[in-house]
Amino acid sequence: MKQNQNIDKGQKINRGHQITAKVFMVICILYFILPVWWLIVAATKNNAGLFMGTGGPMWFDKHFALWDNIKELTTYQDGIYWRWLFNSLLYALVGGVGATALSVMAGYGFAKFRFHGRKVYFNIVLGALMIPTTALVIPTFIIMTKIGMNDTIWAVILPSLLSPFGTYLMRVYCQSSLPDEMMEAARVDGAGELRTFFQVSLPIMTPAITTVFLLSVVNCWNNYFLPQVVLANTKLFPITVGLTQWQAKSNAGAGVEQVWNLITCGAFISVIPLVLAFLFLQRYWVGGITAGAVKQ
User: What's CA 27's distance to the chain center, in Å?
Assistant: First the structure.
């Protein structure tokens, strides 16, 4: 009898924990979903609908203006919005591919080769993880000015090629998922280091490579402070800096042209490529994060 009472008490406690966890999860979901929902709704409104709409801030206005906003994005300032979107794609893809390639080679080298100073070099990489990227913007600006690359696309791309976190993740993944015996077997069969890397190691590293690529692309896509400092030509702006310029312009007052509808619609369009990338590649990058986080 007493044992049954203890079991019932334990079940009630577990049920209470489950309810608490579910309530906390719902709050977290709402916290992340509500701003996205607001952005979706706001992208379908004109300026009047944004501030005096019939549906309120969290629901659609009676006048659906999404297509009108997209048309206006094409014509406003000679369609510079699409130039900013192309620049963001360029910076994200080139920076993401370059950062991934360097991280793969560095992580593979740290994990599978023994060389003098390996621990020291890797500790430097770990130390770089602790430095906020914003703290490096001004030194980067000075360096780019010295070598004549300021206000060029390379002032944004070159600093994006270094990813200490990507190097760390690739090293952990190579250590845990790439057996030394398999590489030794390939060498015994006559394969050189390059052939062993490309034909034996690289296919196994695909989940981690996808993870590092996606994280690098997102980091480059959301980059704001560095382009804001090193770029002066508006035609080189990424979407983050360009929309901020429009926001500052709209904030200037009633005597200045208000483009809030273009800002919200432009922000909504700018997140679509990242959402699609995560949807199509999620099964790879989730596996890479799990393997890199758990295995030793």
Answer: 24
